Amino acid sequence: MERTQNNNLQGFGNIVIFCFFLFFTILLSWPLFFNLDSYLLPSYLETIHSRGYIDTQAVVDRVNNT
């Protein structure tokens, strides 16, 4: 009877360790969730990201010709 109880407690300990690992991972990486676009987009793409479109001469000519 005691061996079964010890095995169950070992499994519970693994769950607790996993929960602590998950908690501290989220705690240490929370800035990434707020600035993901600035980490993923290079600086030359910031103007495209802020305007929402690519302002090239070909696009301007195509719009003007329609």
Question: Topology of this protein?
Answer:
Layout: H1 2-34, H2 36-40, H3 46-51, H4 57-65
Order of helices and strands: HHHH
The N- to C-terminal Cα distance equals 83 Å
Coarse morphology:
rod-shaped
Number of helices: 4
Uncertain segments of ≥5 residues (pLDDT<50)? none
Q: What profile does the largest beta sheet have?
A: none
> How many strands in all?
0
Number of separate domains: 2
Average pLDDT metric: 71
Radius of gyration: 26 Å
Strand content: under 5%
The residue fraction in helices comes out at over 70%
Structural class: mainly alpha
What this model shows, in words?
It is a single chain. This protein is mostly helical and 66 residues long. It has two domains: 1-33; 35-66, no CATH class. Helices cover 80% and strands 0% of the residues. The protein has four helices and no strands. The chain has helices at 2-34, 36-40, 46-51, 57-65. The radius of gyration is 26 Å and the shape is rod-shaped. The mean pLDDT is 71.
